[in-house]
Amino acid sequence: MQVLDQASEPATGASGLPVGLLAPHVSADDCTLSRLSRSGVRLTLHQARSLLRQGQDWDATGTLQRQVDGPTNLPDIWHKEAAWLKPTQLVRAWLAQPGITFQGGARVSALRQIGDQWELLDALGHVLARADRVVLANANGAMPLLETLQTTLPALGIRANQLPAMHGVRGQLSWAMHQGPPDAAFPPFPVNGAGSVIPVVPFEGGAAWFVGSSFQPDSRPPSPDEKNHAANLGRLHKLIPALGQVLAKQFAAGPLNTWKNTRCVTADRLPMVGPLYQADQPSLWICASMGSRGLSFSVLCAELLAARWGAEPLPVDAGLAHALKALRGVAAATENI
Ligand SMILES: Cc1cc2nc3c(=O)[nH]c(=O)nc-3n(C[C@H](O)[C@H](O)[C@H](O)COP(=O)(O)OP(=O)(O)OC[C@H]3O[C@@H](n4cnc5c(N)ncnc54)[C@H](O)[C@@H]3O)c2cc1C
Predict the structure, then answer these.
(1) For 154-189, what is each residue's pLDDT tens digit?
(2) What 3-state DSSP class applies to 160?
(3) Residue 12 confidence class, pLDDT cut points 50, 70, 90
(4) How far is the CA of 288 from the centre of ligand 1 (A)?
(5) Is the CB of 261 under 6 A from ligand 1?
(6) How many CB atoms lie within 10 A of CB 181?
(7) Which domains does the chain possess?
(8) Which contiguous run of DSSP H or E holds residue 199?
(9) What is the mean pLDDT of residues 264-283?
(10) pTM, rounded to two decimals
(11) Which of 174, 171, 169 has the alpha carbon at shortest distance from 236?
(12) CA-CA distance, 37 to 31, in Å (whole number)?
């Protein structure tokens, strides 16, 4: 069962990321994030091929990564295994699979354990759902829920500092419909490197372009939309100067469409997936902190979770899987968890 505070099935597209980029992370030392992202991209692409309509819900266009932010002019990188994808369509396809119940419009305010069962409570203390096993897959909402546990269930020994520090990073996409055929300055595939451009996506009966995304810590007051649009245009000028010039008029004329949300990020930029306390059969798990790469990491994390529950082979090597464990915070390290 999935319990979510969104009023309707998230797949209606009303509030989810309208379209995102699915591309591997690259680093000179091929760090953990890079290796995990390659595995994750492969798994998500497989889901897209199996469940979605190519050209409508996603497209395996490949992506050009421009190295415009580095100290020197490094060559661009072509990612063949990359795509744009509408996450709400993928969620809709998953929810339509047998054995899944979706309960929307349900904000969980607290968790309580009664015997072997967990109860999910609303703000009035009414039970929204009961389950043997709970996975906190609610991004920045996970910590507040865990804090409700601190007071009611110290017996499990869960402490926030056993988890890596998490913080929110606000982001905003700028987008608009193409009026007629796309301008020749649009590239034929997505480009990323300093922000990103997804040039042509079937949308609302026509085609749309998307330019993103701003970054701003949620510890500061939110910036006005206009400032975020200007930041997106600034990055576009570096990424594809000719397109920046073409779209500058549209940015100036405004208003552009906006989509914004807050990313959930750990200090090491890796998701966390695993049990929240040590036991033979832990019943409280987390799968969160996908950062800016939910499309690359969510399927991989779900596969890891399922493999651990079912004692099946892990989808990545044990060292990489270990890097994602939830109990990797300061206290966990000193206590050798
Ligand atoms: C502007 C922007 C652009 C992005 N572009 C890309 C991209 O191109 N490619 C990419 O891979 N990623 C991108 N991302 C990141 C991506 O959106 C996230 O990685 C992804 O959404 C994380 O998924 P999630 O399900 O873990 O968390 P979320 O999508 O944040 O979902 C968490 C859900 O839990 C619900 N919730 C929270 N607390 C509770 C509660 N107590 N009870 C019930 N429900 C609750 C929330 O309402 C929300 O619906 C972008 C993010 C932003 C902001």
Answers:
(1) 567 777 778 899 999 999 999 999 999 999 999 999
(2) helix
(3) very low
(4) 9
(5) yes
(6) 9
(7) 59-85+167-264 (3.30.9.10), 107-165+267-334 (3.50.50.60)
(8) strand 196-203
(9) 93
(10) 0.94
(11) 174
(12) 10
